[in-house]
Every structure is written in structure tokens, then in C-alpha cells.
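We were asked to recover a plausible sequence for a given structure. The inputs and outputs are reproduced exactly as logged, with field labels preserved.

PROBLEM: sequence recovery
POSITIONS: 204
GIVEN STRUCTURE:
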């Protein structure tokens, strides 16, 4: 079975709903993560200090999505009904049955909660089981140890490092650490993720 291209869709789980990202989410997103330097530290630019600066970042992402380069989701925290971050499918290659989950952020209040695990479970399930992908990759800055630990907890395998891969906004150079999950590894990873969501701490 060949893979299918991801399209804007709503994915619902026990803790979060992922829905197509739009300008309608701007106010919630600014309340969740605007002005927080730590939230934006690894995302390739300074934290948006105003609602209009975040609008610019959101507009740029939506422009990429409009060209088919990304499928972008707002992460809706079900208990509050508010958008608390965004995430995307990117680097999509249907012929080679692969894509990347990236450009992800959540408001700091939702770190170490079920939000990341629940979001990734929805995205990975859709990628492998609905779209027929054979590989899902994730990457992060080599200095972002919190992100590397979170990716490893998903069951992704650390593959290696691309040295001097990307220039940071401050002019220094980032090495990118790559992880992946293959379709053959997904059933075991899914079982672990589901158990984490059901266990103490609910996946944080």
C-alpha cells in the first residue's frame, strides 16, 4: 500500500484535539506562549512580544501550509477548550513514505503534562495507520536536552547528528539531532505511549 499525502484534518484524543491551524487561534496562542523567551528559544527566532508579532509568525506558517509544505495543527487543550500551541507535519515525501513532525511548541504551563504525549500519539497514529507512512522523523537542537528527552520517551530512535546544520538567530551554529520511528516499530511504541497516558502523571 502506498502512502497518502496528509491533509488538514481534526484528530481527537483523551486530552487534546488537533485541528487545522488558523488565525482564529491567535488570541489563545498569544495568551499561552507569547512573550515567553523559553518557549520560543529553540524555534528559530525571538519570542513574539506583541500579538501582532505572533500574527506575523502564524501568517508565515500558514503561507507555507497553503503551498503544501506543511500541514499545521492547533493543539487544543480539552479541559480548557483553549489553543495552547501548534505542531505540524513537514518535510513530507509521499513517494518515499515519510514525513517529519516538527515546528512544535506548547505554552510553558503545559510542559510535563499529557499534552505532548497525547499530541504525538494522535499525529503518529494518523501518519502510520491512516496515511501509510513508513518513517516519521523528529529533530531538535543538540543543546535542547529537554526536547531530546521528550522525543526519546516517545520511543523514537536517535539516529545521529547533522553538524553545523542551521544558523541560530544569534549567529551561532546548531547541530541537529535526528530521531525516527519506523512503521515496524510503531505498534510497540504506540503501546508504550498509550500506557504512559493511562499511568501516573498521565504522560508528562
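RECOVERED SEQUENCE:
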Amino acid at each position: 500500500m502506498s502512502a497518502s499525502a496528509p491533509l488538514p484534518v481534526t484528530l481527537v484524543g483523551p486530552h487534546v484535539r488537533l485541528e487545522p491551524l488558523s488565525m482564529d487561534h491567535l488570541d489563545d496562542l498569544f495568551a499561552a506562549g507569547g512573550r515567553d523567551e523559553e518557549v520560543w528559544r529553540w524555534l528559530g527566532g525571538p519570542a513574539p512580544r506583541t500579538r501582532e508579532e505572533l500574527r506575523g509568525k502564524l501568517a508565515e506558517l500558514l503561507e507555507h501550509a497553503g503551498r503544501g509544505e506543511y500541514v499545521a495543527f492547533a493543539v487544543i487543550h480539552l479541559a480548557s477548550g483553549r489553543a495552547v500551541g501548534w505542531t505540524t507535519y513537514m518535510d513530507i515525501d509521499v513517494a518515499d513514505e515519510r514525513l517529519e513532525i516538527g515546528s512544535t511548541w506548547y505554552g510553558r504551563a503545559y510542559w510535563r503534562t499529557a499534552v505532548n504525549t497525547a499530541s504525538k500519539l494522535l499525529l503518529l497514529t494518523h501518519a502510520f495507520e491512516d496515511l501509510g507512512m513508513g518513517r516519521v522523523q523528529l529533530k531538535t537542537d543538540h543543546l535542547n536536552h529537554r526536547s531530546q528527552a521528550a522525543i526519546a520517551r516517545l520511543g523514537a530512535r536517535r539516529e545521529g547528528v547533522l553538524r553545523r546544520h542551521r544558523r541560530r538567530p544569534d549567529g551561532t551554529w546548531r547541530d541537529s539531532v535526528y530521531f525516527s520511528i519506523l512503521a515496524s516499530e510503531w505498534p510497540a511504541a504506540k503501546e508504550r505511549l498509550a500506557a504512559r497516558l493511562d499511568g501516573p502523571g498521565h504522560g508528562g
